[in-house]
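In the design runs reported in the main text, the only information available to the sequence generator was the tokenized backbone. The following block is the verbatim input for one such run; it is reproduced so that readers can re-run the procedure and compare outputs position by position.
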């Protein structure tokens, strides 16, 4: 049965799509739309058409699962042209998300009506693409060039109210969408000529007179777009809309779309779209497992982590009880939370009432006993097993039955923590990344005895607080930090052998990471995890800490920093490195960029393969989600596992073998990596 059905209301033909979950414009929908427009054209009693969707949303875009498969006609560009050329006025009735191809359908319709909660956007750029069904040509004609540039190149949607102010939505509808859209269609059914977006150009004239707008846009966003192919091609397509007639502009759009579609970045970004959604699925949990209800959360520790974690729940409207040992620390912690909210409000991203509302949900206390009525308690104190065990032992006696007891540990053994309670099934790791109110990643650490209900609750809650959660097994550093270790070790070794922090960082930044290992260390604090004894100097890091080079906060770390925190290479650090080199009796040599890649990135892939083979990650794509959301791995390379697959696993294995002698006795090739390489298989399948 076609997902598209039609029915008449007086002389209005209502075309309804029912293609859950998101009304993606797959082949059956496209065929159905063409048939429905044909019906409208062919029936003289039909005077206008309404296109509307059932369930949660208007068409949310092309069907991404069809990408990379043989083409199925009619293609979307043809379908939208058929809609625009309908001889009866067409009204798009929008709710939910009119995204990508969905917005292109709406733009080809002659009128757009939307409920105020609807969102309109062209997120193709996030899939490494551009709107390929006339969107780059029609959107600037309807919404204006600057808005179209912003929407297409960033992929960020706008709300219906803004769209209405821009003229992208003709009518905002309160109440029943279908009923009002039909009334709107009745109003416009006799208007001639029928307005077509492709024929408009009044909103292009300003940019025609001032093509500088494109150069300005590129300049203003250069940093954000660094490394990505798609934003530039989106800009070029909109430039074509301004510089050329519509018929030529769409040809440019098609060419640019195909260039992107056949590229490596689009493949990686589309892979990642599904990777992110797969991560939410927990293996080995009975389907009927229900989540527990979380009405109040307790957080132990009001430091940077505890405060950031609390904000996630407060922002989602969930009350939080926050516990500290000393009044001063408690006041400081709650003060920081308030300041963070106020800073957000000052940027216009929150109202004063919302700040008051969020702060009103926070209950600070010095008593652990006050956690008795919490449904989830997250411990966020420093990384010390004895301290954590003691806290969990106490929680066991205080917390109500069924409460979930979580640790925010980033390395420690969750099973050992769980064993300090009489209810290990209720214990789980919830590893937030700093700053916890900003970073999207949450590693959900599944202990040997963690109850399926607890896992399901954690994953659902993550979505509620707008995190992307990944299930990890119990191992040192879980997924993310465990893979970071070989990278750090090798980066340090290469300093002694002859590389500089600048060279190693540059290779990582050119690869697309936001920063290299030494820049990251300076930002996070070189002193993190340092033993704090300036007389005990066993490595370069100890030597830096001993002379107060703790990173950006001290104005000196692996780099020197000026008062604006601009880094420059440090002669002091160079001296320290040379001392260590001399002591180790190592002869300085040229280290190539390729060697840096092999010893830092290939070793990470190798560790990822071990994580997979040990079952510490459910699937390779989960590892990629961790690295993209937790560490800024460039999404256009899909994540370390996808990247390794696209480079070729045999190349990765060969590179590691080339370096094996330098990687030291602790290094071993992951069996899974070798076997997949030999079999010509992929890690991500
Ligand atoms: N094609 C195929 N499947 C899609 C899809 C699409 N465009 N969009 C979402 N889905 C699937 C998801 O994979 C998921 O499947 P699963 O349940 O099997 O995991 C299911 O629909 C529900 O999706 P979400 O979990 O993401 O649901 P949310 O409610 O959280 O979000 C959404 C809904 C905002 C619509 C979000 O899914 C989304 O952003 N989708 C992608 C939108 C997009 O990128 N559109 C442009 C497509 S490219 C295009 O149109 C090209 C054209 O210009 C030619």
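Verbatim output:
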């Amino acid at each position: 049965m076609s997902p598209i059905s039609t029915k008449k209301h007086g002389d209005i033909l209502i075309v309804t799509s029912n293609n859950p979950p998101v009304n993606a414009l797959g082949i059956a929908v496209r065929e159905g739309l063409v048939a429905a427009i044909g019906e409208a054209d062919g029936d003289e009693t039909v005077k206008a058409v309404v296109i509307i969707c059932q369930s949660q949303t208007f068409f949310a875009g092309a069907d991404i699962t069809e990408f990379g498969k043989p083409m199925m006609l009619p293609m979307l560009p043809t379908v939208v042209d058929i809609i625009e050329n309908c001889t009866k006025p067409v009204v798009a009735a929008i709710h939910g998300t009119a995204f990508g191809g969905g917005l292109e359908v709406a733009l080809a319709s002659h009128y757009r009506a939307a409920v105020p909660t609807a969102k309109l956007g062209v997120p193709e750029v996030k899939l490494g693409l551009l709107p390929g069904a006339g969107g780059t040509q029609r959107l600037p004609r309807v919404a204006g060039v600057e808005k179209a540039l912003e929407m297409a190149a960033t992929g960020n949607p706008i709300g219906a109210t803004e769209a209405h102010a821009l003229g992208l939505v003709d009518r905002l509808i309160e109440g029943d969408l279908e009923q009002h859209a039909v009334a709107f269609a009745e109003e416009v059914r006799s208007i001639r000529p029928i307005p077509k977006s492709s024929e408009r150009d009044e909103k292009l004239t300003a940019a025609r007179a001032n093509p500088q707008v494109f150069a300005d846009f590129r300049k203003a966003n250069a940093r954000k777009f660094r490394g990505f192919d798609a934003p530039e091609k989106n800009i070029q397509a909109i430039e074509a809309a301004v510089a050329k007639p519509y018929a030529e502009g769409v040809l440019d759009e098609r060419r640019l779309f195909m260039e992107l579609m056949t590229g490596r970045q689009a493949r990686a970004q589309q892979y990642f779209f599904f990777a992110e959604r797969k991560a939410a699925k927990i293996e080995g949990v009975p389907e009927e497992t229900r989540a527990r209800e979380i009405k109040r959360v307790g957080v132990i520790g009001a430091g940077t982590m505890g405060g950031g974690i609390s904000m996630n729940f407060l922002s989602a409207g969930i009350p939080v009880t926050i516990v500290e040992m000393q009044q001063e620390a408690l006041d400081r912690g709650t003060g920081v939370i308030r300041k963070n909210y106020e800073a957000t409000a000052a940027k216009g991203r929150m109202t004063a009432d919302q700040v008051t509302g969020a702060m009103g949900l926070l209950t600070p206390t010095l008593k652990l006993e006050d956690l008795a009525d919490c449904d989830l308690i997250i411990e966020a104190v420093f990384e010390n097993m004895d301290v954590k065990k003691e806290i969990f032992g106490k929680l066991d006696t205080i917390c109500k039955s069924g409460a979930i007891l979580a640790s925010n540990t980033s390395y420690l053994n969750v099973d050992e923590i769980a064993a300090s309670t009489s209810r290990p099934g209720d214990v789980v790791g919830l590893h937030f990344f700093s700053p916890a109110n900003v970073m999207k990643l949450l590693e959900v650490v599944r202990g040997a005895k963690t109850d399926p209900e607890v896992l399901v609750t954690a994953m659902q809650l993550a979505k509620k607080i707008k995190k992307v959660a990944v299930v990890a097994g119990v191992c040192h550093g879980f997924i993310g930090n465990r893979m970071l270790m070989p990278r750090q070790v090798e980066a340090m070794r290469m300093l002694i052998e002859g590389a500089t922090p600048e060279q190693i960082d540059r290779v990582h930044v050119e690869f697309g990471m936001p920063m290299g290992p030494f820049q990251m260390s300076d930002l996070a604090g070189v002193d993190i995890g340092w033993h704090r004894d300036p007389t005990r100097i066993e490595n370069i890091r100890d030597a830096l800490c001993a002379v107060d080079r703790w990173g950006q906060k001290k104005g000196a770390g692996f780099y020197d920093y000026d008062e604006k925190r601009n880094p420059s290479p440090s002669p002091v650090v160079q001296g320290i490195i040379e001392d260590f080199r001399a002591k180790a009796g190592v002869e300085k040599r040229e280290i190539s960029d390729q060697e840096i890649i092999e010893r830092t990135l290939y070793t990470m892939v190798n560790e990822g393969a071990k994580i997979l083979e040990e079952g510490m990650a459910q699937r390779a794509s989960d590892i990629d989600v961790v690295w993209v959301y937790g560490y800024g791995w460039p999404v256009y390379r899909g994540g370390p596992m996808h990247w390794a697959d696209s480079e070729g696993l045999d190349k990765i294995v060969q590179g590691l073998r080339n370096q094996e002698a330098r990687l030291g006795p602790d290094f071993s090739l992951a069996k899974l990596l070798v076997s997949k390489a030999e079999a010509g298989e992929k890690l991500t399948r």
